[in-house]
Amino acid sequence: MGRHIDAALAVAIVLVGVASAAVLPRPAGSSGPADVPMNLTADIILRDGYFLEQHEVTTADGYILTMFRIPGSPANPVRVGKNVAFLMHGLLSSSADYVISGPGRALAYMLVDAGYDVWLGNARGNTNSRRHVFRDPDARNTDFWDFSWHEIGYFDLPAMIDYTLAYTGHTTLHYAGHSQGTTSFFVMASLRPDYNKKIRSMHALAPVAFMSNLRSPFVRAFAPFVNQLEWIMNMLGVNEFLPSNEMMILGGQRLCEDESPFQEVCANVLFLIGGFNSPQLNRTMIPAILENAPAGASVNQLVHYAQGYNSGNFRQYDFGLTLNLIRYGSIRPPDYPLHRVTAPVALHFSDNDWLAAVSDVRELHSHLSNSIGLFRVSDPRWNHLDFVWGIDANTFLYERVISFMDRYN
Fold first, then answer.
1. Does residue 21 form part of some domain?
2. Per the CB 3.0–4.6 Å rule, which of 21, 35, 180, 254 could disulfide with 90?
3. Is residue 241 a part of any domain in this protein?
4. What does pTM read for this prediction?
5. Angle between helices 263-274 and 246-256 in degrees, nearest 10
6. Is 384 a catalytic residue?
């Protein structure tokens, strides 16, 4: 009985939350860098003294995505020919993940300082990519949100990678993704295998594909009710999950700042999502984290993950028996053909990751034909969010990632 009460409570919480400049030659047909907007990612990069460009690309299905480029810094000047590193964020987050920790600690800055031309992607629907050629994300019953991480992998990543390569004149790049940034990569590399040839090395930080052994109480609680959740959301016409808004940002700043008695509550909310590791969370940074996340996502992204947990398989979206027959020609959605992933992939994992269990990462590894290997973070308490926000991520993780990228240049 208690388990069902906890699950119902988690669903209720979810429902409440839901309701609530060109340096290199530009390729032919591209618009080049647009004016740099004043948003969190741009503010942080400019504040920290790194060079910044904003680029936009339109996907084959009409979503307008924003990418940020850090081509250099005063200490490492811009020059033609730098090797390219492309970074992709996780669910409910944005490109700010890779700069929020500051110089010397954030992966994007460390890569720039190591001589890389760094590009930061933003998935459809987050605060930087809420545009479409004709769909309105804020309209009621809009089909703007009719996507999961499948479409991010199938459309968004190829569009951003192609643009980045064309703009820089390179034919290959290094890729690093966190959480959903790994899931979407495996979608792309398995269903559009020609993109494997464009990847020099891929670094999966807290890789999420198989999910049956995850320990997150949030996912485990609402996953059995995912069909009801999807139905209720469709009936309410609510398709965006935890949209970013000014009230949430201000609330996070007031409740979670250093002087607030509720700061430790904020910390524990983060721990409940990804695992407990108090020494690696910079409490002073929590308001900035909450300005970045949640950054917006579709309900279907969450539903798709819950389906994966329930089935134990890494497969395409389950639309139900009838629509599955129409879309796939079978009553069950097909598994992603991971044997077609031929890019060199390094899987970086940890023992205390509540969303990417060690056994699930090992299962993923067994399906990859060209794995660089499995690499455990040495801190036994390292959690899912430490991969992007951990105080010592630079020494526990990023130095190793950069050394592998250097090896594959």
1. no
2. 180
3. yes
4. 0.89
5. 110
6. yes
